[in-house]
Specification:
The chain has 472 residues and is of the alpha/beta class. The chain has 16 helices and 16 strands. The strands form 2 sheets. Strands 10-9-8-11-12-13-14-15-16 form a 9-stranded mixed beta sheet, with helices on both faces. α8 links the parallel β8 and β9. Bound molecules: ligand LP7C6HRI and potassium ion (K). Potassium ion (K) binds next to β4 and β5. The site of potassium ion has 11 residues, from β4 and β5.
């Protein structure tokens, strides 16, 4: 099953791999035509009712494969209102080739007639709200006919994700959906066929630009990130907190021992440093931190630069046991995750060593060990983003691999920037989508800066916005 949003991301990934939307539309249209040929005999009347989006586009392709029938194509709107280039091109091809096609300005003008087959291609996954005119009247006409109704991708009006069927939706006899089943089609009482349209498996398995769109924040999202780190180290928490801002967080707070407060505040005006008295993170600080995080923040990053003192690990354990919000757990805090029961939603970001240290698989090649990482994520009950030459992201059921990045990313601190990017993406988001998008953004930023060597993790900070807002 695949949601509409994820389908869009996979389409975008396919395009980045060199398989264009127009190629996918050609395959979709061909699959629809094959279904029509199963239902109609040569010379039968076939009526195509096309909307102005790519759902309609699919049927405009199908029309070219239906010469053997008494065909008529009805576009619900003016050609210039067709919303995509590839659908427009397919309409123009039909007109240029003298196909029997007409535009329907007003639903009263739509003559569905009494064909053997109607192809319902008004609306697919791009629907919003109940059917509006002229689609609503057209749907009534289609439902009132005795024709066999073949719906393209989704019966027009049905929500492909929720399965909600508004009363004026098309009632299909058959649905030809593309690439994978849709959650909203599972309970339809008609035949649903999944047609392979040639999307490469890599478009789902490997993180691409579509995943960035899916997992990065909407421009108007307001995210407050709270980094709990530092103690022996100061660079790591500062990198995470700044990376969060560079990835869309509006405010980035940094909780640290007061002994390094000035050092951290000195890095940049942009961080709000909130110091606590203890020399390092300890249990007496945790209640205060949980209260602050719960009241004021959206996502916590626990771990950068915390060090591994027993009292710090004990405090991390307590924090994890008591906090219930979204968290990125990185670096030294990772080792306690398998020991605690938590209500928090975690994204754990171990490197190979930390993965093994958490009781995960000991792997030289993370990509080759992706199934082991998926099993470990399932046991752990949280998203694991195992960082290496390839990053493997899994929630125990779904696994995606990011091969973005450069050898130079082995320099210290790129895991800290990744943790901050992940936190900025995590609010109100599927944690797997957020983590996959963050791995992609961090790696792409490094690729854009690649001069063969000499990368600094702090260099990534300026480049991340170029990826998150410049490339999607
Ligand atoms: N990988 C794949 O699965 C592929 C699927 N394809 C087809 O593309 C459509 C999705 O196309 P899209 O252009 O995003 O949207 P639609 O055509 O479904 O609808 C957009 C169209 O409809 C208008 N509209 C929206 N809501 C309403 C409403 N409530 N009432 C009336 N009109 C509405 C909106 O204004 C637009 O004009 C997918 O379903 C597949 O069929 C690709 O062709 C290939 C890859
Ligand atoms: K449809």
């Amino acid at each position: 099953m695949i949601t509409a949003a994820r389908m869009g991301a996979v389409d975008r990934n396919a395009e980045a791999l060199g398989v264009s939307q127009k190629q996918l539309m050609e395959s979709s249209g061909n699959a629809v035509a094959r279904a029509v040929r199963e239902e109609a005999s040569e010379g039968d009347t076939v009526t195509v009712v096309a909307g102005r989006g790519n759902n309609g586009g699919d049927a405009l392709v199908a029309a070219r494969f239906l010469d053997a029938f008494d065909l008529s194509v009805h576009l619900l709107g003016k050609p210039e209102t067709i919303t995509t280039e590839i659908a427009r091109e397919n309409w123009a091809a039909l007109e240029a080739a003298n196909y029997p096609c007409e535009t329907v300005a007003d639903s009263a003008d739509l003559e569905v007639g009494d064909p053997e087959v109607i192809v319902d291609a008004m609306l697919g996954t791009g629907i919003s709200g109940d059917l509006r005119e002229p689609e609503a009247t057209a749907a009534r006409e289609i439902n009132a006919s005795d024709a066999t109704v073949i719906s393209v991708d989704v019966p027009s009006g049905v929500d492909a994700d929720s399965g909600e069927v508004p009363e004026n939706a098309v009632s299909a006899d058959r649905v030809i959906t593309f690439h994978d089943g849709k959650p909203g089609l599972a309970d339809l009482d008609c035949e649903v066929r999944v047609a392979d349209i040639g999307i490469p498996g890599a478009a789902e398995r490997y993180v691409g630009p579509g995943d960035l769109e899916l997992g990065s924040p909407a421009p108007d999202a307001e995210t407050r990130v709270f980094v709990i780190g530092g103690g022996p180290y100061t660079g790591a928490p500062a990198l995470s907190a700044q990376a969060a801002l560079r990835s869309g967080a509006d405010l980035s707070f940094l909780a640290c021992p007061e002994s390094i407060e000035d050092v951290l505040a000195g890095y940049t005006e942009d961080l709000i440093v909130q110091a606590y008295e203890s020399e390092r993170l300890s249990t007496e600080e945790v209640d205060g931190l949980i209260e602050t995080a719960t009241k004021h923040d959206d996502v916590v990053v626990l771990g950068p630069g915390l060090g591994t003192a027993e009292e710090t690990l004990e405090a991390a354990r307590t924090f994890l046991e008591e906090f219930e919000g979204p968290m990125v757990v990185d670096a030294d805090a990772l080792s306690v995750v398998p020991e605690v029961e938590t209500e928090a939603t975690l994204i754990c970001t171990p490197n190979r060593k930390e993965l093994a240290g958490m009781g995960g698989p000991e792997l030289d090649d993370l990509e080759a060990g992706a199934d082991d990482i998926e099993r470990f994520a399932a046991e752990l009950g949280h998203v694991v983003m195992a960082k290496g030459e390839a990053d493997v992201v899994s929630d125990g059921e779904r696994t995606r691999i990011s091969t973005r990045g450069t050898p130079g990313m082995t320099v210290g601190g790129t895991g800290d920037t990744l943790a901050g990017i992940t936190a900025a993406f995590m609010k109100d988001n599927d944690p797997l989508n957020a983590a996959a998008a963050a791995a992609y953004a961090n790696g792409r930023a490094a690729e854009r800066l690649d001069r063969g060597g000499g990368l600094l993790a702090s260099d990534l900070l300026d480049e991340v916005p170029e990826v998150v807002w410049g490339e999607r």
